[in-house]
Write the structure tokens for this entry.
Amino acid sequence: MPLIAMTREMGSLGKDVAAALADRLNRQVVHHEIIDHLASKMRLRKSHVIRFLEGKSGILERLTTDKTSLSIYTADETFALAESGQVAVIRGWGATHLLRPVSHVLSIRVCAPFAVRVKRMMERLNTDDRDFVENEIRLSEEAHGAITRRHFGLNWQESEHYDLVLNTERLTVDECADEVLALLDDSTFQETTDSQRIFRNLALSAHIRAALREDTRTNKMAFSVTCDSGIATLSGLLDPGQDAKQAVEVASRVPGVNEVKNQLRSVATGARHHVEG
């Protein structure tokens, strides 16, 4: 069955649409479940991770949050959940962009005009402090925008990045769910041998990057990881003192890896600055 990846916009009713879809499909929605794993892997408090993702972290928290690790571990967890087969909808976490290359993943944006979302959030929070609610929504969107620009190089609010955009100012939650379910039956979004292969390749690459990041011998290495049918290719430059054999060893231990092709090259002391300049 196709997987649904949805945006997370405060006050859009996306949470309700996701819940309706999961109920009809008798499967799970994933949103907050990833946070526990991220916090554990990054050795941070759960509240620290939440504040950073929502754009509310202080200067010290921002300085102590490894953005690269956060991206790597998020991808690893997202693919692991998708591989479980128990999930119908992954909401947020950049899943709409991370899984976009996989044709049987349906990328959905649920949105509404800013004024409508402010009104809804004021009602939900039982407050008449409009300025507070507007600020909360803007902080959330600015944080999300920064993350998607940094990791995916795109503006997440542009409709071209989605298969379907639903405006809940005009559509009810049930009508939104109907539209999504109708697309699930479309041949365009059915699993194929090719789409499964692309998914497995992306998932395995994500798992390898996470394993490399977790290992103290390789967590400072920065290079490309690509996979094709169980064959992992490591390519790029290593800093002086970094050992390609250690990277190959770590990658080889990841379940699903049958072979590792080592295309890593070491650079002489001071040479990387020359290359990058």
About this structure: The longest helix spans residues 130-152.
